[in-house]
Description:
Multidrug efflux transporter AcrB transmembrane fold; Gyrase A, domain 2; 3 domains; four-stranded antiparallel beta sheet
Amino acid sequence: MNSKELKRLLMDWRVATLIILVLLSVIAIYPHFDSRGNLTTNLQYGLDLQNGAWIQLEYRAEIVGFTTDQPVEEFISSLSKSLDTEVLLVDENHLEIRKFYNQTELEPVFAASGGTITSYQQGVSKKTADDVKSILENKINALGTKDARVNTLSGLNNVARYVRVELAGVNMNQAQEIVGKQGKFEIRIQTIGNQTEHVLYGDAITSVSNEQMEITRGSSWGVPFTISEAGAIALQDAAIRTGLILDPDNHHLLMILDNKTVFDAPMDAEAAAKLAKDPNRQWVATTGTGKAGEAAAKTLKIHLHAGALPVDVKTVGAGTVPAEQGRQNMYVSLFAGILSLVTVALVIYYRYREPGIVLPMVMINASEMIILLGFISAIKFQMDLPTIAGLIAVLGTGIDQLVVITDEILHEGKVPSPNLYLKRLARALAIIVTAAATVVIAMVPLMVMPLTTLQGFALITIMGVLVGVIITRPAYGRVIMTILSK
């Protein structure tokens, strides 16, 4: 191939796109030497490939189906008092009880409140599970812990019973402390200038409700929360002593989590006037209007929990991966990947006996692996053994598709004319697209179901299929035609 033909090949948009993606992927992976002189990359590794610990927690709560002839709000209020816990309406037929009771214990309480149980399942609603995940992630991020993963394990009915926390590079004692540690939450009142005075700590907050829009306050978003009787008295005393009652605009309420201010706003004038007469346990922290107000309310709700989960949890499983085992898994995985690539090259050479065909196939396959690794690095996805299994699976299916293209083009062992070549390439790509669609459909359930250990496999398989169909197969078709024409 002369320089003119090579230039024409490299300028082809399909080949150029492949080259650009490979270069961008190498930049995303960023292989470099660290301060100790060891070769490292931006790739993040999960527990399978380095030392760390995992903890699986079970929610001590339940989702209960119900019927009642009482007004729903009165029914929920009665249950909440009888059960001494928060009871939330999930939908018109289901309640979330944020304390563990078995069905036998609940039935007489429901009957006394004017209702009956129609279904019972241990766990929490999807919304509560998302809150728990956010709280744990917020806590882990605040502690600066890297390579952490929090996965909610939900059923098809959107009831979550478990949450799994994986902390790479952390021993079991540290993992238990991170998951179980309570954040330090404090409410203070601004006194003079930037000076503030302590009012109460997070243990005075007895319950936090979901964020909601308050029409009476100009459609502002807010987070309702309740404080204890002692906390209400302490807040009233502090408000009177600091002058907040008379001048709320110059005596803001501040909420501080682990020495970081997460809320700073004046008390509503009407609420301040009422507080002058009686202690108030029911409060709403207003965060603003629109999408920004809603987002701020969701974040504040997490902070109001002060790092504590909205429901009790119980550790039902835990384990560690020693550093030596992680390194061994890493080396075995690397060896398996290289061996797969070499084996594929030998099989292809045995089939075609032509280096001019084998080399492009291997290079296309290798470029596909680089693009997938770049994608993993860019989205900061943790590589684990299922992810590596997905890469090896893509390696095999990729070669299958390249063989389909090559055999279609070399029908009867003859290199076709350009027009016939395009028809055969289109037919081969149609076969590949159909097969790829089947693989994607098969992998989607693994992506959406709570099989967290297989999500990496499903993600990489789907991405490998998409990269192959959109990028590498068309580029290979262009390259192989140029080579075969010689």
